[in-house]
Design a protein that fits this description.
The protein is α+β, with helices and mostly antiparallel strands. The protein is 40% helix and 15% strand. The strands form seven sheets. A four-stranded antiparallel β-sheet has the order 13-11-18-14. The chain has a three-stranded antiparallel β-sheet with strand order 3-2-7. Helix 3 runs antiparallel to helix 5, helix 10 runs antiparallel to helix 11 and helix 19 packs across helix 21. The longest helix has 28 residues.
């Protein structure tokens, strides 16, 4: 009968902490209890799955593989590719000062013991499958670090059936059990975690090296026999023993003398190799190619020149080798840091000196590809012809320091451009633009500039009312409430920063979700909220070249700069809807701090009546145009009725004369009165 499915809900303890059943938490398919069908027997020491090693008296079988010249050359190329890279120590958690201090201390510790030397020797784990290093701990500069790290021969060590590392000695071939956190083991290769000793490349190099060695041996025999023709002497039937010896002496003289004599009746001829004989050189070159392919994952970096294929194909295959180099560097990084179960030297160092709850630092190799300066210069020349040039910062990033901009020779002034032709309104050429003016405007618009992008908060009344209820004494003016999207000190092309997809004039953040009121910097009190849209938008502009002063982007609204007396722990965050207007692009204003103002809640508010509330409703529902229309609509109607350029100029001139203070006040009063009457009428009808 089928077993009923177990309820997942029963695996949760109070408080939401998971309680995992033992049959899910522990290992079942282990290799240490005799249940592994791939291992016919269990011995005191773990055996290698490689039959050539298992059947050998000693595990030094593959040491002879490294004696091959091609193997040695390719391994040097692979290992030097890692060692040549710069290395650094990065914190496991850059937000934790203890982890940062651990990274600084670890960097000094491995500099003392010679990290490049250790890397060079430890990477032979790639060839043999695993490597072992011994750590000599010592108190240094108030910390427990290493006085020496010595890489030992891997064949001296074995794992026992319980997974403990043992050292084989002449007195104890079953191995001496070694202390924890004393030896650092790196394994490479293998298709599963049951391969205790890894699977080194030597396992695949064995036969190419063997065939090459035998081929060279046969080649030497061949050269010894056929490098010069072999002399053959023929004596007639019935020749005496003395005659035969005379002929043999004459044949042997061919190797040392330029001339020789033979008795009459005897013949001497030279045996030469047929033209279609064996090509041992080709066989050896084939094996060299196989060796390079196994170690470097390609052959072109070593063989392209010899094959006459040129440097382009070698460069393509060099990129494949770079991937192998990066993988080797990551292998050593992961081994030195260790896993959660057994750890590694970096984990042990952190535990001893900073605590087990501190994230262990990581030793990494810089894997940035070198920039081809020739290609960069050709690219710069091409974009220069299109009217673009690099900024000084970009130029230094690519070409480095040591360059000065060459002074440009004075160029004669360009002839004055012809005046733009202005057609009369109503003709077919109303939209004609002077091409010289258009070019100048387009070039100026695309010039890189600093950039500040923000969205204004539209439902400010809700946030202001909430802040008043939470005890805020003052706030920034409601018209200044906004969320910053980008703040780039690096000059960028604004038009490249435009949102490509999904641009909306209004951004609505639904009520709820994570909200926090906290301090930002020394003075600002802000409301942090979550928005994937804003985070993605900030990342999009940073990917296009905009700078950002912080590691992460967290959307927020600055509420006040005068909140020193606020108890933030007692403030309940605003959890209502947030509505923002469109993105606004502006250059950075470095003096914005000097323009800060606050609106105090202690100031008495102007009395409001039902008409004011109705006007606010119209503004919220239909926008400002409903109220400002009585002012601008008459002017628009006059301009639309104009039939000539002179009519337009006359209308504008007349309006400019009427735009004195008193005339403007009267126009505004008439517009306000009309709006209030309309609002009062609408409100009365609703009631």
């Amino acid at each position: 009968m089928a077993q009923a499915p177990r309820s997942w809900g029963g695996w949760m303890q109070r408080g939401g902490i998971a309680r995992v059943p033992a049959d899910l938490a522990g290992e079942i398919a282990t290799t240490r209890d005799g249940r592994d069908i791939t291992r016919p027997w269990i011995s005191e020491l773990e055996e290698s799955p490689d039959p050539r090693i298992t059947n050998a008296i000693d595990w030094g079988l593959y040491d002879r593989v490294l004696l091959d010249d091609q193997v040695k050359s390719c391994m040097e190329q692979r290992i030097r590719g890692v060692v040549a890279r710069e290395w650094n120590v990065v914190p496991g958690d850059d937000q934790d000062p203890r982890s940062v201090a651990a990274a600084d201390g670890l960097k000094k510790a491995i500099e003392r013991v010679g990290w490049d030397r250790i890397t060079e020797k430890k990477l032979y784990a790639v060839l043999f499958g695993y490597s072992v290093a011994e750590l000599m701990w010592a108190p240094i500069d108030g910390q427990l670090a290493w006085s020496k790290i010595r890489v030992r021969h891997a064949r001296r060590f074995r794992y026992d059936k319980d997974g403990r590392l043992r050292l084989l000695t002449r007195a104890n071939m079953r191995g001496e059990i070694l202390p924890d956190r004393k030896f650092w083991v790196t394994t490479s290769g293998g298709t599963d975690d049951d391969t205790t000793y890894g699977r080194g490349l030597a396992e695949w190099l064995y036969f190419p090296v063997l065939f090459k060695r035998n081929g060279v041996r046969f080649w030497n025999i061949f050269l010894d026999k056929f490098s010069v023709p072999t002399a053959k002497g023929t004596y007639p039937r019935g020749a005496s023993r003395d005659d035969q010896m005379k002929l043999l002496a004459a044949v042997q003289a061919i190797a040392t003398d330029s001339g020789f004599v033979v008795p009459e009746g005897m013949e001497v001829e030279l045996l030469e190799l047929a033209k279609n004989g064996a090509d041992f050189g080709a066989a050896c070159r084939y094996m060299d190619g196989a060796i390079a392919k196994i170690i470097l994952s390609q052959t072109m970096t070593t063989d392209a020149g010899a094959a006459g294929l040129g440097s382009n194909q070698a460069n393509v295959h060099e990129g494949v080798k770079d991937e192998v180099v990066i993988a080797d560097a990551d292998l050593l990084t992961d081994s030195f840091t260790g896993d959660a179960e057994t750890g590694g030297p970096a984990r042990w160092y952190t535990d001893f000196n900073f605590g087990t709850d501190v994230a262990a630092p990581r030793v990494v190799r810089v894997a940035e590809e070198e920039i081809d300066l020739k290609v960069s210069a050709e690219t710069d020349e091409a974009i220069s012809r299109l009217g673009w040039t690099r900024t000084e910062e970009s130029f230094r990033d690519v070409y480095g320091d040591g360059y000065e901009r060459k002074e440009q020779a004075d160029t004669p002034p360009a002839p004055p451009a012809a005046p733009a032709v202005v057609e009369k309104p109503g003709t077919a050429d109303d939209n004609r633009v002077d091409p010289t003016v258009a070019g100048a405007v387009a070039f100026a618009a695309s010039d890189p500039k600093t950039l500040y992008v923000y969205r204004r908060l539209l439902n400010t009344a809700d946030v202001v009312e909430w802040a008043r209820g939470q005890g805020f004494a003052s706030m920034v003016p409601p018209t200044d409430l906004h969320v910053t999207v980008a703040y780039s000190r690096r000059p960028v092309n604004w038009f490249e920063m435009a949102q490509e997809y999904g641009a909306e004039p209004k951004l609505e953040i639904p009520a709820g979700g994570p909200r926090v009121v906290d301090r930002l910097g020394e003075r600002a009190i802000v409301l942090h909220f979550a928005s994937n849209n804003l985070c993605w938008r900030n990342r999009e502009m940073r990917d296009k070249g905009a700078s950002w002063d912080y590691l992460e982007y967290y959307p927020h609204i600055t509420l006040t700069y005068a909140g020193d007396d606020l108890d933030l722990a007692a403030i309940e965050p605003y959890r209502g809807e947030l509505v923002f207007g469109p993105e606004i692009f502006e250059p950075l204003d470095e003096g914005w701090n000097d323009k800060l103002i606050e609106v105090s809640f202690a100031e008495p508010a102007a009395p409001r009546d039902v008409i004011d509330e109705a006007v606010d409703t119209i503004m919220a529902d239909e926008g400002w145009r409903e109220l400002i229309g009585p002012i601008v609509d008459p002017l628009v109607e006059q301009l639309q009725a104009a039939t000539s350029r002179d009519d337009v100029i006359a209308i504008l001139a007349r309006e400019a004369e009427l735009a004195g203070d008193q005339a403007l006040i009267e126009s505004l009063a008439r517009a306000g009165f009309a709006a209030r009457i309309d609002a009062l009428t609408d409100s009365s009808e609703e009631r």
